[in-house]
Design a protein that fits this description.
alpha+beta, four-stranded antiparallel β-sheet, 4 strands, globular, binds adenosine-5'-triphosphate, binds magnesium ion
Length: 139
């Protein structure tokens, strides 16, 4: 089934000028980038986005990291896009990520792990709506 998922190219990757390399892995995996914008996340946006982790010990660090440099927010479209992109990203901890995944190739640590991808269709809808309107998405 054709689906959409939400992706973020995180500050560690934009800082190292890896936007194009990350996008190449996404496109080589058969996912289409149907919306994309480079932004500097505000503290309020980052806090809201990672609200589910508010009680975790790394929450403050995570919000600080996500606002430390520009990010690229994206909508990806394709067959089973949510699960497919999770495969393409690799495990949260790059030390455990499979060969050829974005995190294996580029992530620096469990915190600075280059990309975000939605973990369910429901969350994808919520996350896309936080950063894009329907008119921004051209499939
Ligand atoms: P994301 O939600 O960013 O796609 P994920 O779903 O693989 O990643 P989550 O468990 O949702 O992982 O954690 C969200 C983010 O919080 C991680 O991507 C990472 O940046 C950060 N994070 C997770 N665990 C840790 C940790 N132990 N120490 C520092 N940061 C962490
Ligand atoms: Mg997650």
């Amino acid at each position: 089934m054709t689906e959409r998922t939400f992706s973020i190219i995180k500050p560690d990757a934009t800082r190292r000028n890896l936007t194009g390399k990350v996008n190449a892995v996404i496109e080589d995996a058969g996912l289409r980038i149907v919306a994309q914008r480079r932004i500097k996340m505000t503290e309020a946006q980052a806090k809201k986005f990672y609200e589910v982790h508010a009680e975790r010990p790394f929450y403050g660090e995570l919000v600080e990291f996500m606002t430390s440099a520009p990010v690229v927010v994206q909508v990806l479209e394709g067959e089973n896009a949510v699960a497919r992109y999770r495969e393409v990203m690799g495990a949260t901890n790059p030390a455990q990520a499979a060969d050829g995944t974005i995190r294996k190739l580029y992530a620096e640590s469990v915190g600075e792990n280059s990309v975000h991808g939605s973990d369910s269709i429901e969350n994808a809808k919520i996350e896309i709506a936080q950063f894009f309107t329907d008119a921004d998405i051209v499939g």
